[in-house]
What we know:
The complex is a heteropentamer, with 2 copies of chain A (257 residues), 2 copies of chain C (309 residues) and 1 copy of chain E (283 residues). Chain A contains 9 helices and 12 strands.
Amino acid sequence: MGAGERPMVQAEQVHKWYGRFEVLKGIDLEVAPAEVMCIVGPSGSGKSTFLRCINHLERIHAGRLSVDGHLVGYREKGDKLYEMRDREIARQRLDIGMVFQRFNLFPHMTALQNVMEAPLRAKGEPKHDVRLHALALLERVGLADRADSYPSQLSGGQQQRVAIARALCMRPKLMLFDEPTSALDPELVGEVLDVMRGLAESGMTMIVVTHEMGFAREVGDSLVFMDEGRVVEAGDPREVLTNPQHERTRAFLSKVL
Amino acid sequence: MGAGERPMVQAEQVHKWYGRFEVLKGIDLEVAPAEVMCIVGPSGSGKSTFLRCINHLERIHAGRLSVDGHLVGYREKGDKLYEMRDREIARQRLDIGMVFQRFNLFPHMTALQNVMEAPLRAKGEPKHDVRLHALALLERVGLADRADSYPSQLSGGQQQRVAIARALCMRPKLMLFDEPTSALDPELVGEVLDVMRGLAESGMTMIVVTHEMGFAREVGDSLVFMDEGRVVEAGDPREVLTNPQHERTRAFLSKVL
Amino acid sequence: MSTSAEVRPQVGAPPPEPIKAIPVRHPGRWVAMGVIAVLVAMLVNSVVTNPNWAWDFQLENAFAPPVVRGVLTTLWLTVASMLIGVTLGVILAIMRLSPNPVLSGSAWCYVWVFRGTPVLVQLVIWGNLNSLYREISLGVPFGTALTTFQTRDLIPPIAAALLGLGLNEAAYMSEIIRAGILSVDEGQSEAASALGMSRMQTLRRIVLPQAMRVVVPPTGNETISMLKTTSLVAYVPYVELFFQTSAIGSRTFRPFPMLVTASLWYLAMTSVLMVGQYYIERYYARGSVRELPATPLQKVRMRLSRRGI
Amino acid sequence: MSTSAEVRPQVGAPPPEPIKAIPVRHPGRWVAMGVIAVLVAMLVNSVVTNPNWAWDFQLENAFAPPVVRGVLTTLWLTVASMLIGVTLGVILAIMRLSPNPVLSGSAWCYVWVFRGTPVLVQLVIWGNLNSLYREISLGVPFGTALTTFQTRDLIPPIAAALLGLGLNEAAYMSEIIRAGILSVDEGQSEAASALGMSRMQTLRRIVLPQAMRVVVPPTGNETISMLKTTSLVAYVPYVELFFQTSAIGSRTFRPFPMLVTASLWYLAMTSVLMVGQYYIERYYARGSVRELPATPLQKVRMRLSRRGI
Amino acid sequence: GSDSTSDSDAAPTAGAGASSAPAIAKDEALAAQVPAEIAADGVLAIGTDASYAPNEFIDADGTTVIGFTADLAEALGQVLGLDAQMNNAPFDSLVEGVKNGKFELGMSSFTINPERQEQVDMVSYFNAGTSWAVPTGNPNGITPDDACGRRIAVQKATVQVDDITARAQACEQAGKEPITIQQYQLQSDATAAVVSGKDDAMLADSPIVAYAIAQTGDQLEPSGEIYDAAPYGVAVPKGQGDYTAAIQGAMQQLMDSGAYEQILSQWGVQAGAVTRAEVNPVQ
Lengths: 257, 257, 309, 309, 283
Ligand SMILES: Nc1ncnc2c1ncn2[C@@H]1O[C@H](COP(=O)(O)OP(=O)(O)OP(=O)(O)O)[C@@H](O)[C@H]1O
Ligand SMILES: Nc1ncnc2c1ncn2[C@@H]1O[C@H](COP(=O)(O)OP(=O)(O)OP(=O)(O)O)[C@@H](O)[C@H]1O
Ligand SMILES: [Mg+2]
Ligand SMILES: [Mg+2]
């Protein structure tokens, strides 16, 4: 497979259980490089869980899941799978940025320190460069003047924007957004979308879990509708949103205000 | 003033500082009984802070703020203000329900226990009744089957719905919602809105901080647009949304997708 | 850019093979285990063969009636003093964090004095209160006495021992509990207040149960340390395990083997306490982690059931 | 239902009067303060006038050169043992929580043995290693020895004291630090892992700094308790404060006043440590509360500056 | 009176152990001198630190205090018509107990010195010298006068600490290697240190050394003579002239009657016998 054609993310029959509860019931999907895929679906359908699997924060129990051609968390030699060492997993994650649904900012660091931490420590980039990059990113999400505030001193929307800047500062190849605009006002949603559009144009692949259909329509290259741990429908966002094929999708979309 | 005419919430020139940073710069507004007021505004404009002041979780530094005709956190005798005892403040809060932006569920209790806790302990209602009421509320927000899960085992949207059920179980006169639908999918937003509409019809007063203009239009009796700690514009939602008077409001609303 | 997401029919598809991956090999672990095994073997060998440990002498005395009585005394003294310590410690911690300056001030002073002076001295004072004050009078301050007690009758040795250990422990426990309370997210008590719960209800129902996760391990430390601190009640004077073993040691001029005997007794009691601590920690971890790991017992049972036994 | 929200013109409006409310009156507090004041006065009166405290005798001996030397020894022993204890404790706690069973197993055993046996016995063993083993040989296990040391020369008393105290303390500290690490939200290490930080980086940069809030108060406990535990180095034998004061007490047959002298010294050292603890706690509280309260010093300064001084 | 309880967990409280002592008649005149509040309950409560074999130590049952002090105390009680009870307590709390009346007497191998006489009245009853013990064969050839450069074990807070400190200074002044003084908490620790070879020699009260040599089999032997005889005293609360006189009289009577000699020889410590019991003999 040539590098250009190789999908950035490829999931085949991904299954995952929590105890006896099957969260993911065989997910199949592919995300091409530079593609923006939106995932929508009702609460509890397994969207966050799937994102966490891509990052190997959760272990999948059956199926195959690979990022950029490499299995997530495993090495394959011949027929056999070998678990990766912590160090290798960490290296794999350097290329995958993630914005958590609950932000998970580091409370003992200021906004700026939050953004600078990983490039400095995990990538070992020079401090001066990281600082400039971090400040530029905070500027871009409209928080330049709040760089020295601690997370507890920021409003919900401000925290969410710091989380986005933090993930971007790693210059990942793939970004996973878990409801990145849930705490934002419409104005900021617009701004953050601009940021993301810029990223998409610069060739970054993105998977975005969102409840904003407008966003999916405007920015998404593809849209996946998930329900009860399954991919129910997938395709071009405009098509899926205007002309859903499945009963379940239609029911869901009819509720959108 | 007759009981029927007395505003449920009345704010006059409410000011609040965090250190040198003025978050609320003189808020004036009134909410009538059984009214649903929506507050919109950009991130960091002080919406959450204002809600927290109504509940006396934050102390205001100047102005007057009263709920149901009684000053919040103070007793007035003649010209003088007296601080209330903790016990009195707790009693005052029994009538005010609040859903936090970050949910703040009790992690060591199951969903059901979270909902039952306050009516049992703070109001001392009989256990059997509370249990039935709590289960009915969980049913209403679509979580009957998750009653025994701990918050860490719930998805973001499920947590938010538990938080709503928890506040409702107190049967408050006034409900404060801080972005109650931020983590919900459109379908659930619809359901939660139905719940809230029912509440409104049963005569409950509500203040709802939200970024969903559709919601504000459909359910709100009034809409307040806040920016930088000030009320910029207020009025009928349909009017404000379609024909904003202020420059700032217009700029903000133009970004709504 | 192409829309490459695709849906495959899934109805009726058999669940795929579960992933079976070969775990990471850790040759270092095996080497380390080998080294440890050799070291342990050497240690065991020397402990068994070296006559200085005097195992036969130890065995002879380890279960002598006075020693066994001592073990029981040590145990109940530990339990009773820890009960006093934890109860009073919770009260002191709450006082310390109260906005009321009188309460927080007195709690501070209590902790300062009781933590700052040696428990040995506190025991000596409780045990010999009557060398300071032959009698204690209740009555008008600086005025006439109404009732007068002989201190030496008022505080029997057992009470002095419990007072000394318990009051001292309370000072330490209050700091541990204070740390636990501080570790609970502010949002939790805000949520409880917003629900109309009073300060005390919030503490008892919301904050303390969450604080327990952080409180239990240092409390385990304190309990295990208390086991051995009880030996200081000799100053009251009161008799427990350590007194008995060292009496045998001085009588026979073989103090060292008897110290080892005492240590083994303490180690046995510690082991029981550590098992208890494990289950208490597990209980308070509920809800705070996504999935509780299995207990050792459960693991054994799972293995057995897998083999069809 | 009416839309009653209204906007008033605000431009140019003067900021309104700040709220000046009369604080809640707490008559109970005043009564309590009065009672406490009377009790303290009675205590002070009795302490000053009761000849049993023998203040002149204490003063005579409190600054005797051996006592002052003892104070210094106690201080540096405490600091050095706590340094060993904390460092090794962090390592043990990390080992204990590691997925590697060899590491976590050995950490568990270490904690079990060193916490389970009395520090006194550990000190006796370190101080008298040669009553067990006259010489220590390095060489092939169970084979020929290459070098042989006389144990009585190998471990001087000072090393025995530090080893005994430090290694024992490490076992207790590891439990405290483990509790601290467990108190940090799982989401924090998930976020760090997702950013590509390694397990060690996550621990050092994200988890441990947040754990410190919970770790500091029990560590304060341990340090203050260590101050007094150093008196057990008498079993090594090594000489510090408590040894010196009780030697004076025995010689003169006035042990009680000298116990009080020792306590006052300990109390003084504890006070210094408590001030240090206050500032360390404050440092690690940054970011975890919405607003840090002022320090006592800042409060005094604020009051002074308000009065224009 | 005595406040000791019968609770088996309380500090060991028992009549002096050895029953082989001869029956001794009560002396009514002396008994009459004992203050009424002490005699009232028929018990003489004596404080002792029972970790000092063979003078006073705890029997195998874990409660009974035995040793020549205990036997002497029982005989003393019999003369006064009282039942002597030995209460074990650590040294630091012993003197306090005597001063505050918790104990009616203190008998714990107290060496009399002027400072101690200021605190309590001391009635002398034994002459303990200092003697030295070394490992059998005396491999290092240590004598009391030639211990420079050696490690010497001694129990803390004994008169021997002053003794060995003076010798250490003498060594230094003579330009020889200094003595390493190792002060142990308990006498048994010091003995164990010499047996194990950690230290080279020890010095202690002569009866202790004699008993230690006997108890440790053939591992220790004496070195040099007994020297510096110093009196042991019974501690009596100050300012009770009659009571002190009664104790002194009773002790004297034991010496005169031969019961004293008999008790001492039972424990092999007759070398320290004295013929006169005196009040506060040290000037
Ligand atoms: N540790 C756990 N144990 C049991 N069930 C769990 C656990 N974690 C998550 N779940 C369940 O798995 C399901 C999927 O959760 P997930 O967080 O992926 O949902 P989601 O699609 O992201 O929903 P939302 O839009 O509300 O965030 C939910 O029903 C949730 O209750
Ligand atoms: N403890 C604090 N110290 C300093 N500034 C604070 C503190 N808490 C909040 N702020 C600031 O106060 C402002 C208002 O915060 P608030 O949470 O009320 O905003 P909001 O309108 O709810 O925004 P959002 O929609 O993003 O939740 C923000 O700029 C925030 O940074
Ligand atoms: Mg989710
Ligand atoms: Mg907000």
